[in-house]
Amino acid sequence: MAASSVLSSTSNFSEPVTDSLKGRVALVTGGSRGIGKAIALELARNGATVTFTYNSNLAKAEEVAAEIRTMDVECLMAQGDVARKEDARRVVSSTLEQFKRIDILVNNAGITRDHTLRKMTDEEWESAISVNLHGTYYCTTAALPAMTEQKYGRIINIASIVGQTGAFGQANYAASKGGIIAFTKCIALEYARDNITANTVAPGYTGTEMVEAMPADVLEKICAKIPLRRLAKPEEVAKAVLFLARDGDYITGTTINVNGGLLMF
Ligand code: NDP
């Protein structure tokens, strides 16, 4: 299989802007690149007001903000390291100051720091857990009081197939993503009475910069094991998020797998 046939991060969505999320305010962490960018654009394309965050790459974030503004929806771009609780809380409070509510929270920001346990440093363990798991906790707990007051909230946490299967050389990442899946179920149980749902989207291998940087032969071997024989497009992960945010009123505590059939259960 040619490498180009398994790479698929280029946006190919040309659907018209709809207003199905008009009046809803969304916060997407790590919305400046990859999957988070596709999610921010998909929610905006459907009429949501969107705050998205970035950590270090201002230029990429500005590109996303410019694209959202062409859709004639309001948008706030916010810098913040989700692993720092004060940053996470500031991003949520800026959203509330500007837009007065927060309906949809997508905890997407995530990193890998791969090494086998024999070689993994404490710093690598801690940074993956801090960004992926602590970041999800900080943003969620910052947003929950407003959602509780509104009696409405849709929390969607981006985990990974690796949080379900484990992966060689990714103990820190797998633990953080497995933790997100369990954390999400607890939110679902504790906040159902407030009309707040919490679900996880677990992507498989997805064509973002990180994955596309892998050697072509490695990617081909990975794709050979995927029943659909290709990587996910970020936009395909975003579609699952849109479904939960817009149509998932009676879905809570579950995980939607977007993995091309790589893991079925
Ligand atoms: P990318 O590396 O392409 O993008 C990561 C995004 O997160 C960027 O916007 C980045 O901002 C932001 N970010 C990184 N660190 C922080 C931080 N400390 N605080 C706030 N924002 C941060 O990642 P992907 O799009 O590939 O992945 C997105 C999510 O999907 C992650 O949670 C990842 O674990 C998950 N996932 C990805 C898969 C894949 O195959 N790509 C598969 C399964 C799950 P900046 O550029 O400014 O640093």
From TrEMBL:
Q: Where is the Ketoreductase domain?
A: 24-208
Signal peptide positions on this chain: none
Enumerate the Gene Ontology biological process terms: monocarboxylic acid metabolic process
What Gene Ontology terms describe what this protein does at the molecular function level? 3-oxoacyl-[acyl-carrier-protein] reductase (NADPH) activity
**Which CDD domains does the protein's record reference?**
BKR_SDR_c
Enzyme Commission number(s): 1.1.1.100
Entry-linked PROSITE patterns? ADH_SHORT
Q: Which Pfam family name is an example for this entry?
A: adh_short_C2
User: What keywords would UniProt list here?
Assistant: Oxidoreductase
Extract the PANTHER family matched here. 3-OXOACYL-(ACYL-CARRIER-PROTEIN) REDUCTASE, 3-OXOACYL-[ACYL-CARRIER-PROTEIN] REDUCTASE FABG
Q: What family is it from? A: Belongs to the short-chain dehydrogenases/reductases (SDR) family.
Tell me what this protein is called. Answer: 3-oxoacyl-(Acyl-carrier-protein) reductase FabG
Organism encoding this protein? Candidatus Sulfuritelmatomonas gaucii
Q: Which gene encodes it?
A: fabG
